[in-house]
């Protein structure tokens, strides 16, 4: 990622914007300088973490001495520059530009998935577009609803290019590009083919950054409503760690408000028969993965161990780095572990016919929809262990649809035993959390000192790739933590080239980890998607929950102990191997890295 | 780090090599030795079209793998330039003249009728591989305007209603040739 801060020695430039003087580092663009004095120039294609596109022209301003309007997102500041952002002429021109963007756009707002949180809609309103003056020829590109996780509605695309850039610059997947030219331009995967047959790893970040409804997650709410309405079906739900840290945003609570209790109440009111916590799956993952790490450190398998809980990352591994598959932990993701236990453990114990169980998972993650459908995660009867995956956004919508006044709900607790978890499970939702949690448990296994909060240091120049030396028993380990797949690439290349001898590499496909997942709430109006501050506040909520828990280590969780004693045997044992572990294989199309 | 049998690169590389003629493979090899191999994409696509007549799916995917340029970018470039053909050209190439004289005499209606009858847009080929539709500038036969050319034959002056019968003649001709075992 690019950072906006120039270093302190670098020269500064003084300019005047709307009569106010401002001093900014050399190399800034006019739009950034304006932000510094509280002027937010409208923008669409610009995103501070992505390269400049300069495609939409919504950000135009007047600069003294230049007799045409310039795009403030792409024009560097110059000493003595005089800029006007707000003359009547410029406001009219800006409104015209937005009207032209709309001229071939469907008039679908009331029936559109993004109604109410669409950047184009908000922008049109803010610019004062109240009439459709131009009615241009409509584009009619074919939609692709075939994907198990990501669907495309290119008729809503305004060609800002943000998805193309996030997919290549942050995720290193390069799955998207513009096809054809001019009016016929369509953004999509190679050949505009089906998403699931492309090199897409289903992270959903294109959905996050798209200002409109051109990319969306596959909607799975219908199946869930149907199960909830059927008295014969026993509907079980689990929620991932990062849902509780973000769901409140959908109901106007400040970003970073932990909302575990209200979320559970809302799920019960929707009619779920049992509300479990993916955190328990996370605790199990940690115990199994810590065991795997210790075994490998003792010579039983290749190092570094690569974590496996992020399905977007697993897709990436299989498509881009298949030769490293045997480094990956064989642990199923926490979601899949818990879903497996719902059928294989919970159902028989409670004398519920597994056929009557419908297992729903609420995830911050779009790739989990794909994971749930993978053949590796089918139960012996051929049905998937996880019947439906909802994103945070989909659950928020269901709660709204049901007329539940979320912010006024009382608190409730998860059901036992699959709802009891340690704080280690909570921090799974943020980058670095898996590593910290796994090391807390691994330390116990090797009889060493407890591992406290790890201070990771950023690898120089790279936000999103961190490493730290950690003492584990009598060994000194080097662990790396990457979020965003471009950063994962860096860690893998460094390890492959022998520049770094990592023992453990944690990878989360999404920026910031699951809290920045492709299925998390769209940011509040006027803020940018993937704003580091939003991610930080969501992460802080998870660390706060962890700090407030008595139970901090996964293996201390009584539910985990009980599961091993009654059912699973020992970590890495025969039963847990059969139920809690999985396998991977190279997948095509092979990614270009 | 361990590299293991789970690697599919040897197989992908082999399959990619099989999809391209030797001349193209040599050219890609040459490009890879240059300083910016990826900037050779357009040149490589030209070579493929020269050798194969069009850019097929297998060829485009193979170029992506061997040149290590993301597949979406390869398709982006191949669809951006009108010069590149993504499907084999039809047996009969129809060029609709949109020169001034033809235009004034209603070439646009003729063109629209052609698209309707064939069910394809400009630059496209019918699913049965019989017809490709393209436009051209003045063919030098303005006296016959509006005109279209089908392979080497000029047809004009045409009214939209002449189109179905004309196409039918070519379809019959193709049938006869097939029945006669000729290609
Ligand atoms: S994408 Fe936005 S502007 Fe377009 S129809 Fe949907 S809500 Fe309306
Ligand atoms: S889901 Fe992720 S990998 Fe797939 S196209 Fe979108 S950004 Fe790229
Ligand atoms: S799909 Fe969305 S993000 Fe991508 S170019 Fe179109 S409008 Fe922009
Ligand atoms: S935001 Fe500046 S050109 Fe799009
Ligand atoms: S304009 Fe058509 S032949 Fe001259």
What would your notes on this structure say?
The complex is a heterodimer of chains A (about 600) and B (about 180). Chain A is built from 19 helices and 18 strands. In chain A, the strands form 5 sheets. Chain A has a 5-stranded mixed beta sheet with strand order 2-1-5-3-4, with helices on both faces. A 5-stranded mixed beta sheet of chain A has the order 12-18-17-16-15, with helices on both faces. In chain A, helix 9 crosses helix 11 and helix 9 packs across helix 15. The longest helix of chain A is centred in the middle third of the chain and has 20 residues. Chain A is globular and about 75 Å long. With about 180 residues, chain B is of the alpha+beta class. In chain B, strands 2-1-3-4 form a 4-stranded mixed beta sheet, covered by helices on one side. The termini of chain B are far apart. The mean pLDDT of chain B is about 90. Chains A and B meet through strand 7 of A and helix 4 and helix 5 of B. The structure holds iron/sulfur cluster (3 copies) and FE2/S2 (inorganic) cluster (2 copies). One iron/sulfur cluster (SF4) binds next to helix 4 and helix 5 of chain A.
Rg of chain A over CA atoms, rounded to whole Å, is 25 Å
CATH superfamily of the largest domain in chain B: Glutaredoxin
Class by alpha and beta content of chain A:
alpha/beta
Strand line-up across the major sheet of chain B: 2-1-3-4
Distance between the termini of chain A: 17 Å
Q: Could you spell the SSE succession of chain B in H and E letters?
A: HHHHHEHHEEEH
What is the averaged pLDDT score of chain B?
Answer: 91
**Assembly classification:** heterodimer
Classify the helix fraction of chain A into a percent range: 25-40%
DSSP summary: helix tally of chain A: 19
Most extensive chain-chain interface: A-B, 34 and 25 residues
* Main beta sheet strand tally, sense and closure of chain A: 5 strands, mixed
Give the fraction of residues assigned to helices of chain B.
40-55%
CATH structural architecture of the largest domain in chain B: 3-Layer(aba) Sandwich
Q: Main beta sheet of chain B: strand number and arrangement?
A: 4 strands, mixed
Strand content of chain A: 5-15%
> Which term fits the overall shape of chain B?
elongated
The gyration radius over C-alpha positions of chain B equals: 21 Å
CATH topology of the largest domain in chain B: Glutaredoxin
How many beta-strand segments of chain A? Answer: 18
Q: Find the count of extended strands of chain B (DSSP E, 2+ residues).
A: 4
